[in-house]
Structures are given as structure tokens and as C-alpha cells.
Amino acid sequence: MQTTCKRFRYLFGRLQIVSRTRALLSKIWLPIRLRVIGPIYRQVVLWLTLSYRVGLRRVIFIGVTGSCGKTTTKELIAAILSGQFKGHKNWGNGNVPDQIARTVFGTRPWHKFCVQEIAAAAAQGIPLEIPLRLVKPQIGVVTNIGTDHISAFGTMEAIAAEKGKLIAALPQNGTAILNADDANVLAMQARCTCRVITYGLTPEAMVRAENVRCSWPERLSFTVRYGDQSQFVQTQLCATHLVSCVLGALAVGVAMGIPLAIGARAVQRVQPYLGRMCPETVPGGVTFIRDDIKAPLWTIPSALKFMEEAEAKRKIVVMGTISDIPERNHGKAYKKYAEVARQALDVVDYIFFVGPWASKALQAKQNPANDRLQAFSNVQAITNFLNDFLQPEDLVLIKGSDKTDHLVEIVLKLKKLGIEKNLADKPQFSESQNLQQISLGSGSTGHKVDPCNSDDSLGSSQRMLPAEGLNRVHVIVGLGNPEKKYQNTPHNVGQKVLDKLLHLMGGEWTQEHDWMLARVEWRGNTIYLVKPMLAINNTGPLLSELGQRLRLPISQFIIVQDDLSLPLGAVRLRMKGSAGGHKGMASIIDAFQTEMIRRTKIGVGQPPQNMTANEYVLKPFFPPAQSVIESACAEASNRICDLVGST
């Protein structure tokens, strides 16, 4: 037996050596690949693409750039031209040099055209000159100038200057297709010596739209005019703001000699591109409008306008991360999320925010019990909620960023949960329904409670206080995980503080439902000390249930938590605020739908370089840090005593 154990330890040691060696080599290889091999690879690809491009002189290359609408415009252009000519287009929304190189290599000398999106990625070290060298466009289309890249470029003028390089690169026999409704785009005609075709809603546009209509379930339609030509255009697209994409594509058709009537017939067959105002209806009758590729602030009003004009039983917006607000500008972020919430509440029945900034929108709430505005920290939380909340004939706009929010998972998961089978049997929620009951119904860890019979659930020693005594009642909750192995970890410092409070105030722990609870009378206050006995990420629904049983609002709670952003041993008291990345705190904000939650934070410092934050908060403190944390927990308990003693 001893020999077997020795062999096992020997093999385990060898495996650890191999694992550490591989991790070390990976750290060495990554910067070499990024700084040395990457640039060499890009130069080789550039040279090969340019060499191949020489043989495509007869192909008319069409470049499409702009802040929004590039992919939809590209698809429409390809549909119009493909009816008359053989050609090629970039796949998906591939618009960076490596993807552009694939498009060029996929183009054949006998093709008449190739249409390619071109993105401004100077922030990633890829100026527009590089893709322009690969494409060498004869026709250039600029859709619009927005604030998508404002963090990288600083001003709208700088963004326009970068996008305008496409127009400046056109040859004298080329054609610039410019959006006349956007002053920054229209000004680009001064940068070229070639033919210019303008498009838009303004009467001065050469290709212009009139009588634009789109009221869901009706699709976008309008009348287009160019010179003495006039043509009715019926599309499959949703939202009036997409008329600009259709006009830009029709203008390219005009530049290629295609009459408006032929272009209009081609446009009618084009379906909305996935993730760009794309409808998806489940068999139960709920229609999702997926606009989940990106959500810059300047595009939100047009999406809300679509919802305002739509016809539906209930109109609901699910909003993810607003993509052009710098994270460093917290004050601006707080205001913008609340502003969007107010705008949405004027035109839709419900708006639900999702993501790390979601709770900032709750500042727009005038009545805490109003469930029209809610915030959820992650996709799973809102999916569980929507699975119970949605009704037949609901129209749901999903607006977010695919890189950060992945809101498409809402639709995919709801289908998997079988929403189409359950919609008809679900209860009808009203706006006056209690918010906490809705939250509990959507979470899998909560239990519905009858508040009228909740006294006995806490035992005879835990009777409720009368309402007039609420200001002398405090519920102090120490966040943490219940397993013994986590007792000395950063995530459990909140529960360590509660042990010290119990020692100061007297009392003893009792097991009550899914929490350890101690009720003490201290300095004229009734204090409930609570240790949740569920995983820390599921704390919210549990505390919501506890609040109902105690008949206490969240304003009577004090949450004690760890904080990675604070130095080791630092203690801070906060009366409100976001979760700050703490999933347990995010769960509580989700459950109570407010950031007005008192909390005590204990700094646990940052994880070492070789450890992720998730690993760090679940591993025991190293001995040097242990004494610092003990002192911090003692200080936190004293501060909490001062806080409740002063009320």
C-alpha cells in the first residue's frame, strides 16, 4: 500500500511539473506569436492578396463603410447586382484585413463585381489604408457616421475623417455613394474628384425615398425616385431607419446601370440579416426582434421608434450593454442608462436591462413597486424570468452587443425550455403585481411564501415586530458559501464578520430554512444575523424570501461582502451602488430591483498573476493575509455596530 502511494505521489508530481512547464511555455509563446509572428503573417497575406488582386482588373470592387448598416447594405447590393451579373461578396460581416483577403481570393476574374464591407479599426492598429489597398474599390458607399468608435477617435469629425478615406481612395472614373441625410457623410464629396450619387430622405438627394411606411407586422415600404424614374419598393425589412440601407443599395444599382424597377424586385426578396432587426417568432406566438449585434447609444432612438409604431398586445424591450459609453466615465454611464429607461417607458409596456451596468437603469424608477422597469445581472436570470412572464402575441425587441451580452442566448434558451408549449397555460401578469413575487417566480432557488402565515415559519421566538418599529430592526447578512472548505476564503469574509457580531451582541445560531439565523436585542434594536446556506451566487432569491417572511423591506438589510477592488484589509460602508462584479451582490440587486442597499465591504485585494479572480475568492487566504483579514473583520463588525446603534 505504501509503495502504491509513493508511486501515485511520484506520478502526480511529474504531472504537476509537466503542467507548470506547459503553462510557462504558453506565457512565453503568446507574446512571440502576437508581436513577431503576427506582423510577419499579416505582411505575407497582404503581399499575396495584392499579387492576386492584380489579376482582377475587370472586376468592379464596391466598398461599404459607415458606423452602422454596412452588412444590410452589402447584402442588398449583392442581391440587386446578382440578378444581372455574376459576382461575389464578403461572408457575414467580415470587414478586417484577414477576412477581406479571403473575399479577394474568393473573387474570380470572370466576376463582374465584388462587394466588401470595410471597417475602421484604427484602435486595433489597423488604419483604413490597409483594407483599401486590398480592395482598391471603384465604387464607395458610406452609410452614416455615429459614435460607435468615439472612445478610440475622440470626436465625430475624426471618425468621419477615417471613414472618408474610402471616398478619397476612389479613382476618377469611380463613383461615390453618399448619404445626404448625414452632414458628415455628405461633406465627403469634397474629398473626391469622381462621380457622386447621393441618397436619402432629403429632397436634395438624387436617389430619395417618399411615403416611408413600417408599422409591425407591416414591413418597410416606400416610393423611390431618381430623376424621372419612380418606383414603389416593398421590402421584408423591419424599421423605417433601414430605408437608408435600401436607398444606398439602389444607388449602387443605378451606378451599375440597373433600372430602379429591377432593383426594387431584387430588394423584395432579401430577408432581414440575422441579428439586425431580424424577427423570430416561436410557435407560442411571441415574436422576438433581434437587434443584438451592437447597441451604440445613437441607434437606440430608432429602435424605440420601431417599437412605438408597432402593433402588438404587449411591447417589451430587452436592453443589453450600451456599447459607446466609456467604462471609465461612470457618472455618464449612470445617466445614460437611466435616460434610455425613461425614453423606453414612454413608448413600450416593459423594459428589462441585462448585464453589469443594468442596475444603473433602476434610477429611472419613480415607484419601487412598478415592475415595468427591471434589471438583471446576466442572461440566465432574465431567461428564467421571461420564461414565466411572456404571453402570446408579445413583441420583444432584443437590443445589445454580441461581443459582450450574447443576448441571442435568450431566444435559444427559451426555445430549449419549451416556451412554445407553456405560453397558453401561463398566468397573466399585471403591472400592479408584486415585484418580489415576480422575481421569486422567475428564479429557481426561491420559494413562494404566504406573508400572512410567515410568522410561524421562523419559530415562536422570531415573531414579527409591528410596522412602527421597523426603523429599529436590522437584518445583517454575511455573504459566503456554506461548505466548510470555504470558511477561510475571500468570498466568506462576510460570514466571518457575522461571527464577530454574534460574539459582540450575544445570541446563538439556529437553522431556519436555508439560512443560519440569530435574533438578538441590542441597544434597543432588533437584529437578525443571517448566514445564507446556499451558494453565494443564489443569495438574491433567498433574501427576497426572507424579507417576505420577516415583512421587512430591503432598506432594513445590511449586506456584508468581500471586494476585490479594495486593498487587502480595507473596510468601506456604502449606502447604495452597483454590484461591482460581485455575483452574490448582483443576485441581490436582481431580486430586489434596486441599488439602494446598504453594504459593508471588506477588501480582499487582487489575485496573484497566475490565478483568476474566480479561483482566488474560493481559495483560503495565505497566512500573511490572515491576520490582516482578522483585523479588518473586527473593524467591520465595530462599524456595523456604530451604524445600527445610531438609527
Question: If classified by CATH, what would the architecture of the largest domain be?
Answer: 3-Layer(aba) Sandwich
The CATH topology of the largest domain corresponds to: Rossmann fold
Counted beta strands: 22
Q: What's the main sheet like?
A: 9 strands, mixed
In the CATH hierarchy, what is the class of the largest domain?
A: Alpha Beta
Percent strand equals 15-25%
How much helical structure, as a percent, in the residues? Answer: 25-40%
Q: Mind telling me the CATH superfamily name of the largest domain? A: Peptidyl-tRNA hydrolase
Cα-based radius of gyration, to the nearest Å:
30 Å
Distance between the termini: 64 Å
Overall mean pLDDT stands at 84
Structural category: alpha/beta
Q: What order do the strands of the largest sheet run in, or round the barrel if closed?
A: 2-3-1-4-5-6-7-8-9
For this structure, the quaternary state is single chain
Taken together, the total number of domains comes to 3
**Which residues form runs of ≥5 with pLDDT under 50?**
427-457, 459-468
**Which word captures the global form?**
elongated
Number of helices: 21
